[in-house]
Amino acid sequence: MGKLLRTDGLFLVFLTFLEIVQLCFCMNSTLGCIEGERQSLLKLKQSFQDNSSRLSSWTGKDCCKWEGVSCGETGHVVKLDLSTSNGSLITDKSGYSYKSYDFYNSSKQVSAPEVDPCLLEFKHLVYLDLSGNDFQGSRIPKFLGSLKHLRYLDLSNAGFSGMIPHQLGNLTSLRYLDLSFQGQVLSSSGGLYADNFQWVSRLSSLQHLDISYANLEEALDVMQVLNTLPSLLHINLNSCGIRHRHFPRGSFNTTFLARINFLSLADNMLSGPIPSALQNMTALRELDLSANSFNSTVPLGLVNSKNLVRLSLSGSSFNYIEGGLLSILNKVCSLKSLDLSFNYFQGDGVLGSNYRNSSRCLAYDLAFLDLRDNEIGGRIPYWFGQLKGLKYLYIDSNSFSGPIPSSLKLLLMLREFDLSNNQLNGTIPQSLGKLTSLEELNLSGNQLNGIIPQSLGRVSTLKELDISNNQLGGFIPESLGQLVNLEWLYISNNL
After folding, report:
1. Which part of the chain is CATH 3.80.10.10?
2. SS3 label, residue 316
3. What per-residue confidence (pLDDT) applies to 363?
4. Which of 95, 102, 127, 373 stands the most exposed, by the fewest C-beta atoms within 10 Å?
């Protein structure tokens, strides 16, 4: 199967790419390519093992027409794109965007024991993408720092390992830098690491930085250096060994905090209270702090941005939300995706109860809400029915009790709804039959009684229905036979 890699901050990627496109790729050379550069491309081709014949078009005299090669007005090569990705982005349920690679199909890759120095011949190169190929655990070559015109450099998921060369700091025109890894590549190559981040301080034009899965435990200056970059908008430091000691107090200027629109520190080693530096980021659109060990309260200062679209705090040992869930939803009208799953939220206070003072924006914007695997108790709030934009609602594996509220019939856009493994009782409401966009409904592992309502047969979009492990009785309604799209039906362990 193809593996999906995260490339969050889609709008920024597009912006950076668009600027580069406008700069040079709109130029269709009428002169043909430079002969010396054509020879260098052939040398580069010879350095690769190309089982898929991806470079089979690299023949003939005009290298500007070769696949993956673009030239400027003077015939010089300005773009070299050897990525295994087709460039398309896939958006998952929570709204995150992914770039598709296929690490299990080596026929799509070119491989080499190292990057050939012939790249130095392309002195006008602005764009270089070697992502998704296999450089067999070799080092990122220091000579890349001599390609002074580079604005876009993507070496992600290409099997590089060892220390990130400080020479990359010479690329002072660079706007986009992706050195990220994914699990499969990391385990086979050993991964990248950095002992300090001073080399990054010279990248004053950098807007997009993704260095996920590189080991930055010893680079204690990483956040201080990023704080000095005047153009930086997008930071992805997933799985980099970041700790609280990487956030020295008083070292962040307000301009930096007000500019960043994407930040991911997921799967690191952050613990204790959320660093104060993260609580004043007023331009944020996406924030991911999942898979850490905060063991603390979610402060309302974390959602100070009126532009926040996605917030993921999953699996980070949070135990309380300042003001409750309602306070977050009332404060950020732009929020479309909120993931609070796999934490230690307890009781019903974590949700908030003062719905009367809620803003009208609460009713329409949120599309994804994940509260699964906490210890939230009490009744399912009636105000959940006012989240009319919801498409995905997961509140399974909690301690909700009482009946399923009738207000949920208002969630007409809902596609997936999981209430399983709670302590819900009473009957399955007939009104669930009004959720005519529903594709997956899971009510298993509760104490629901009565009969299976005929109205479920009207939800023609249903693909999966699980009502097992309850106390339901009576006959299976004939109306379920009308569910022509149904693929899975679970009704075992009832009366």
Report:
1. 35-249, 250-339, 377-494
2. coil
3. 65
4. 102
Tokens 């980021």, residue located: 281
Split at pLDDT 50, 70, 90, the class of 165 is: very high
Q: Is 236 helix (H, G, I), strand (E, B) or coil?
A: strand
Give the global pTM.
0.91
Assign 359 a pLDDT band (cuts: 50, 70, 90). low
Run of H or E residues at 347: strand 346-347
Mean pLDDT across the stretch 273-279? 88
CATH number of 250-339: 3.80.10.10
Domain 35-249 grouped into CATH 3.80.10.10: yes
Place 22 in a pLDDT band, splitting at 50, 70 and 90: very low
Other C-beta atoms within 10 Å of 168: how many? 22
Mean model confidence pLDDT for the chain: 89
289, pLDDT greater than 50: yes
Alpha-carbon gap, residue 267 to 491, rounded angstroms: 37
Residue type at 37 in one-letter notation? E
For 377-494, CATH gives 3.80.10.10
Kindly report which listed range (115-119, 282-286, 287-291, 352-356) carries the lowest average pLDDT score.
352-356
For residue 308, count CB atoms less than 10 angstroms from its CB and return exposed for 0-12, middle for 13-18, buried for 19 or more. buried
Q: What whole-number distance in Å separates Cα of residue 302 and Cα of residue 28?
A: 47
pLDDT-based confidence at residue 352 (cuts at 50, 70, 90): confident
Give 387-436 pLDDT, tens digit per residue: 999 999 999 999 999 999 999 999 999 999 999 999 999 999 999 999 99
CA atoms within 13 A on the CB side of 41: 31
Task: State the Cα–Cα distance between residues 343 and 271, nearest whole angstrom.
Answer: 14
- The DSSP letter of residue 261 is -
Determine the pLDDT at residue 4: 37
208: buried, middle or exposed (CB in 10 Å: 19+, 13-18, 0-12)? buried
Paired tokens of 317: 């040992």
> 13, 269 in Cβ contact below 8 A?
no
8 Å CB contact between 132 and 101 = yes
Using DSSP, state whether 489 is helix, strand or coil: strand
Tell me how crowded residue 235 is: count the other CB atoms within 10 A of its CB.
21
pLDDT level of residue 355 (50, 70, 90 thresholds): low
Token pair of 349, please? 């206070």
In terms of DSSP bridges, do strands 3-6 and 97-101 run parallel, antiparallel, or are they unpaired?
antiparallel
Compute the distance between CA of residue 208 and CA of residue 56 in angstroms, rounded to an integer: 32
DSSP sequence for 4-51? EEE---HHHHHHHHHHHIIIIIT---SS---HHHHHHHHHHHHHSB-T
